[in-house]
Amino acid sequence: MSGGRPLRLLGLHGYRQSERRFRQRTGALRKALRGRAELVAVNAPHPVPGGSEDDDGDDPPRGWWFSGPGTFEAGEVAEAPAGLEESLSVVAAALAEHGPFDGLLGFSQGAALAAMVCALRARGDPRFPVAFAILVAGFASRAPAHSHFYREPIALPTLHVVGDADAVIAAPLSRELAQHFVEPVVLTHPGGHFVPAAAAQKKAYLDFLDRFCPGQGQAEPLGAGAI
After folding, report:
1. Is 67 a catalytic residue?
2. Are 129 and 95 in contact, with CB atoms under 8 Å apart?
3. Quick check: is 166 catalytic?
4. Angle between helices 109-122 and 84-98 (to 10 degrees)
5. Catalytic one of 18, 67, 108, 174
6. For every one of its 227 residues, what pLDDT tens digit does the chain have, with 9 covering 90 and above?
7. Do the beta carbons of residue 107 and residue 13 sit within 8 Å?
8. First CA to last CA distance, the chain
9. Which conformational region is residue 82 in: left (phi greater than 0), alpha (psi within -120 to 50 degrees), or beta?
10. HEC states along the chain?
11. Which of 46, 67, 166, 189 is catalytic?
């Protein structure tokens, strides 16, 4: 990355999280990226029915879409998924109103959504002017209505972060998502369902981000591989 402003990343939180919860849980990552990239998160539009044990009422857990009535399971073959179009509109509005952004950083369901945004961007959708994405614990939606996102290889640079001990989004699901991209970079860590930011992961993030020049939206050539 050349000298100048830090890269700006739009953060998409996981299911049952929120912008505030995501910000709290990515403190180590933001510290690791300080001076190189700024992470700005946005709330998903759909409150999750039933809340959670730590729901304070003012910050309900949220989701990007539902696979059943008010529920979500990553592995469910949902015949009537609900809420995705509203979420794509939220992402488009955030990019337009709070941008410019250089890329996306998504976690879990947010990573799955980010992958869909990448597919639309690769097809030339002007609502999503991003150059790359970091997808942590991502997966491909099993809903038939979402299959069009994966029908052709997605030609946008991506770093896929996979936790070998992830009991929520199993590692094979994240690796399967990576296979839908052209020349994905895969970073494996030994942990579970979280955004890792130890020294090894910090180096991988920075190496990936260094491929991009702020404001130009161009990536340096780098073949697919594992870190």
Report:
1. no
2. yes
3. yes
4. 70
5. 108
6. 345 789 999 999 999 999 999 999 999 999 999 999 999 999 999 999 976 555 556 789 999 999 999 999 999 999 999 999 999 999 999 999 999 999 999 999 999 999 999 999 999 999 999 999 999 999 999 999 999 999 999 999 999 999 999 999 999 999 999 999 999 999 999 999 999 999 999 999 999 999 996 544 444 444 556 55
7. yes
8. 19
9. beta
10. CCCCCCEEEEEECCCCECHHHHHHHCHHHHHHCCCCEEEEEECCCEECCCCCCCCCCCCCCEECCECECCECCCCCCCCCCECHHHHHHHHHHHHHHHCCCCEEEEECHHHHHHHHHHHHHHCCCCCCCCCEEEEECCCCCCCHHHHHHHCCCECCCEEEEEECCCCCCCHHHHHHHHCCECCCEEEEECCCCCCCCCHHHHHHHHHHHCCECCCCCCECCCCCEEC
11. 166
What size, in residues, is the chain? 227
Asked about 193 being catalytic, the answer comes back as yes
**Structure pTM?**
0.91
Q: Are 134 and 118 in contact (CB under 8 A)?
A: no
